[in-house]
Amino acid sequence: MSLPFLKLALRKPSLLRAAKIISTTGLATLTTGSTCYFLATRDQTFHHLDETTDPLALHPLTRSFNPHANKSLSDIYEARLPLSKIEPELLEDYRHGGSRLVERYCGGVLGGWGFAPQRYLSLRHAKQHGFSHSDELYTKAEIERSNFAEGVAISDHFTVIAKTPTSILFRGGSPSNSEGLREVDVLMQAVVEVDGKTEMAKLSLKCMFYNGIGRGSPPPLPEAITWAHLLYAKALAANGTAACRRS
Fold this sequence. Notes:
Blueprint: H1 3-11, H2 13-41, E1 45-48, H3 55-58, H4 60-65, E2 73-82, H5 88-95, H6 100-111, H7 116-128, H8 140-145, E3 153-154, E4 158-164, E5 167-173, E6 185-195, E7 200-210, H9 226-244
Antiparallel strand pairs: 1-2, 2-7, 3-4, 4-5, 5-6, 6-7
């Protein structure tokens, strides 16, 4: 509260009460939001992505987009779920070589509350500029229904560039439809693994940010906002996990 406002509030009790209400409400909102975030993401475990051994870092597309092996900001958020907590039809499809489990996971990652601001802003921008909506997925319903085939584009931000029955690889950054090397490039990969012996499933979301242009270029995200990316990635991964749980 500023000093002039405080002096005025002391002379006017109603303003002081209003200031107290605003301060208390703001603190309560922040506390509630933090608590909800913690509860929603508590099953996610952070891991550093080892760029010397991880399949994403060694993927041919990763090497082609980052030919100089520039340093990246990379991370993994992972959750382990008992098979008894996953929708049975997803597991049945997985056992027969299908991709519905990883598709459901991605539908949660990009169709959940974590990605909602991006979906809203992208759709609004598209409508304002008269962009075609037919070749892009913007809404929660569209994304959750998608099979994430190669070439599918989401909210002018991610494009599916590779898919297997257990993984889907997206390329993001700005602009999302440009070819070749990018100054700001993002790879995001969803991976699902089911272990029948332990009766557990591992659901992982991997991210790599890098500058694909020039040799020795640092990661495009400043260290000061790395924490914001980690919070965001954790929320996306939690949304993906939640989408696979039995209802």
